[in-house]
Amino acid sequence: MNLTPQQAMRAAVAVPGVPRDEDGPVFREPWEARAFAMALALHEAGVFTWKEWAETLGAQIKRAQAAGDPDTGETYYQHWLATLETLVAAKGVATSDVLHRYRDAWDHAADRTPHGAPIELTQEDFGK
């Protein structure tokens, strides 16, 4: 999913705490931008409100801090991804089992893919 600069800035302003500069959200890794884009797409599809998102993200960050996350900002999008998974499961878009099954399959696909080659998910990545 490609975001227009206007969409990205609108979402960055709507959700407090999004790392950003004057041009919009700032990402350290490509997966962070993809997680951001997925959240925006699910919000625009009506899966959750920004209020629900902010409450769920806040709870996720508090749990992580209680477990020892140093809250340096480096794990922000890990919390973002966990929030996505929580809301997708809570809203019935996909079950936690399905999310974990696909995460494990992607991990398997990444492990077998040579560096620099595109990762392609196959049936073998799902195991049994």
Report on this model:
It holds the Pfam family NHase_beta_N. It comes from Bradyrhizobium lablabi. The mean pLDDT is 86. This protein has 128 residues and is mostly helical. It has a two-stranded antiparallel ribbon with strand order 1-2. Helices cover 58% and strands 3% of the residues. The protein has helices at 5-14, 30-44, 50-66, 76-90, 96-112, and strands at residues 20-21, 24-25.
Give a summary of the structure in a few sentences.
The chain is mostly helical and 128 residues long. The protein has helices at residues 5-14, 30-44, 50-66, 76-90, 96-112; strands at 20-21, 24-25.
Q: What shape does the CA trace take?
A: globular
The radius of gyration computed from the alpha-carbon positions, rounded to a whole number of angstroms, is 16 Å
Number of helices: 5
Number of strands: 2
**β-strand amount:** under 5%
Q: What does the main sheet amount to? A: 2 strands, antiparallel
Span from first to last CA? 30 Å
Instruction: Report low-confidence residues grouped into runs of 5 or more.
Output: none
N-to-C series of helices and strands: HEEHHHH
**Overall pLDDT, averaged?**
86
